[in-house]
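For the sake of transparency, this paper describes our internal protein records without simplification. The tokens are whole numbers drawn from a learned vocabulary of local backbone shapes. One such record is reproduced below, unchanged from the form in which we store it.

. . .
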Amino acid sequence: MSRDHDVVIVGAGPVGLVLAHLLARQGLDVGVFEKWYKPYGLPRAVGLAHDSMRVLQATGVLPDLMEHIELQFRKSVAEYFTADGEVLVRFEFPGVDHSGFPSMVPFDQPGFEEAILAAADAEPRITIHRGWAASALRQTADQAFVKLDPVDGENPRDGEAIEVAARYVVGCDGGNSTVRRLIDAPMTDTGFTSEWMVVDIRPSDELAARLPFGQSLDWRRPTTLVPSGPGRRRFEFIALPGETAEDLGAPEKVWALLADWDVTPKNAELVRSAVYRFHARWANDWRHGRVLLCGDAAHQTPPFLGQGFNSGMRDAIALAWRLALVEKGDASPTLLDSYSSERVPHVATVIQQAVGIGHMISIINEQQAMGRDAQLRAMRENPPEEPFLAPWRLGPGLGRDGDPEVRELALQARVSRDGVSGLLDDVIGSGRFILLSRGVDPVATMSSTTQDLWRRLGGQIVVFGAETEDSEGAYERWFDSLGVDLVLVRPDFYIFAAGKVNEADAMVVELTIQLGLAVEAA
């Protein structure tokens, strides 16, 4: 049966576009359908985590985005401080984190979206259709169909609905997702809501140098102050009881709030402002046959850890390689079940932690604030053995259980091969399974059958100390920390297996079993 695209994505926001780029890089034809004629231009996310930067690296368009990313932000410590300036909590961000990039870098989302959209328009495997709203879904054994209604405006098919066929349909259509509603996905809702005024400014250099980075715990008006991309700063002011969005959105009110931080029209330009109500909830299952959810369609995260956008980036890379393998017949469709089983527990932990931080910073009662401050002060003086925030871990899924760091992020560091130096993915590429080996080529330990399976998967081998140089010794230290000499890394940068070089055959065989490679793909 004919189809219009390999994959249809409903929603042309940043997550949908990143997913489209990743799928296109895997050779799939992608149709993106968006109801709005222009990208949303108001402030939202401001921070890219190190693993999100690696995802963007995998799209091949990161160089086009760099002018909207502040890779060298001058402050590497965020502080939670009282109205008197007492610092109660400090978060230090590593200069280079596990994925080869700073732990968190500021970016300007509207500019970022314009650049990634331009790159999508230039990619022949991606077709973007604007002015179409999803209204119905249906599935057969081998295809999914989405009905799309024209939206009033510039659509030449005004009044005439269409139905588009694809092997899979992915809902990337935001927090009010139509796709999620159409598949009737059950939700877990924490019940947390909070309303904040979000303001972006372009400060003078002098003002930017002295603005704090972190969170004001002043109970009279809790305020977040963070970088928001090159030459910009973000303020988030909690809405107090009785204040409406109209009240907060008035220009004179915005400037009055900023004035408390010595921000005036003389030293700053108001870029944009908006009032948002934050939610904390997630869909319990992100797959319904040939229809899947991704990004805010699957979860809504309060911004207090800066991880809502980044969770969407992780969704995109986790889903892209699975869809590509299934579509090419190199994995069973059941592989897609692990997308949900891994990502849901991970994002649930992130959301629950964000809610906890939200409750802590949103206190607007003086006595409660004094109690909170006393607790934080005690923790500062006597730090607990456990980290302030527990690690985020994938749920059960693809991996050789029992191995060190299974389903944890693999390292990306600087390497050199054939006269080319840079981060690992820039030198050898991405989007494939990789065996990272210390000193010995693992191919010699594989049977001919296993070697054929590895080649079928497009697997790549990197041997440090042979054809590839570990430029800064980072991989040597990483292997030592794991107590292994061989690591099998998934296309989404998570570890599938880790052990000795003579386990390469067993690792690859186990991988093919878990992929269902012997099962004919639908």
About this structure: Residues 337-361 form the longest helix (25 residues).
